[in-house]
Amino acid sequence: MPVQPPLSSETHSLDGAAPSRLELQQVMWNNVGVYRDAATLERALEALEAWAPSYATLHDRENANLLLLGTLIARSALAREESRGAHFRSDYPEPREVFRRHISVQQGSVERESAVAR
């Protein structure tokens, strides 16, 4: 079932508690969707990095994995300062040759790998 846009905007709390699945969906939908810019990506990272994952139940562990995945997606999108394919950055509306590469994300860093094979 596809994720529907939230009824309200930015209703998440930044109190360090584990996020609910709905809170994760809202942050990602509102800030890391197909249409994005640096400000919305930074807002998403602020929310995602403020939450502390919980591992108490299977559902909590699934949410922790989604929290990690959302953080990696937002970091990668922030590092890619261009629009490419279906992903549009309003602050970088054109493709840039320097970003014709894969982005590799590792804990603590974001790097661009060598040129994509043509």
Query: Count the helices. How many?
Result: 3
The rough form would be described as elongated
What string, H for helix and E for strand, traces the elements in order? HEHHEEE
- In round numbers, the mean pLDDT is 81
Strand order of the largest sheet: 1-2
The total strand number stands at 4
C-alpha Rg (nearest Å): 15 Å
Contiguous low-pLDDT stretches (5 residues minimum) are 1-12, 114-118
Alpha-carbon distance between the two ends: 35 Å
Q: Percent range for helical residues?
A: 25-40%
The biggest beta sheet is recorded as:
2 strands, parallel
The chain-level structural class is alpha+beta
Strand content: 5-15%
Structure description:
- The protein is of the alpha+beta class.
- The chain is built from 3 helices and 4 strands.
- The protein has a two-stranded parallel sheet. It has a two-stranded antiparallel ribbon with strand order 3-4.
- Helix 1 runs antiparallel to helix 2 and helix 2 packs antiparallel against helix 3.
Would you spell out the secondary-structure blueprint of this structure?
Layout: H1 21-31, E1 35-36, H2 38-50, H3 58-79, E2 88-89, E3 101-106, E4 109-115
Parallel strand pairs: 1-2
Antiparallel strand pairs: 3-4
Helix pairs in contact: 1-2, 2-3
Characterize this entry briefly:
The chain has 118 residues and is of the alpha+beta class. It has helices spanning 21-31, 38-50, 58-79, and strands at 35-36, 88-89, 101-106, 109-115.
